[in-house]
């Protein structure tokens, strides 16, 4: 986790950014561990959770459910979830399911 701003004593806002780099497949066999990992990575208070998908080779419905579930948990905490650099297959999956309109996805 990285804090990008001076400490609050300096009068500036603090944005906590956590980045999780995923590799391999996200499926029914790995989704539970992924959920636990992302929950631990959620910054406390205002922040940003970036999930780097550039090395994800496969994702099934259970993986998508984890990403949607994490967003639902992040929002009330004031944390924004961003999916970064999905491969073409993942981008297509997000588009076909309509999740590209629900989740923030950046190249």
Automatic annotation (TrEMBL):
A GO molecular function annotation here is: anti-sigma factor antagonist activity
**UniProt keyword annotations, A-Z:** Membrane, Transmembrane, Transmembrane helix
Q: Which residues cross the membrane?
A: 44-68
Q: Pfam families annotated for this entry?
A: STAS_2
Look up keyword DNA-binding and say if it applies: no
Report the residue ranges that make up the STAS domain in this protein. Answer: 17-107
Q: Which family does it belong to?
A: Belongs to the anti-sigma-factor antagonist family.
From the Swiss-Prot or TrEMBL record, give the protein name: Anti-sigma factor antagonist
Organism from which the protein derives:
Nonomuraea rhodomycinica
What lineage is this protein's organism placed in?
Bacteria, Bacillati, Actinomycetota, Actinomycetes, Streptosporangiales
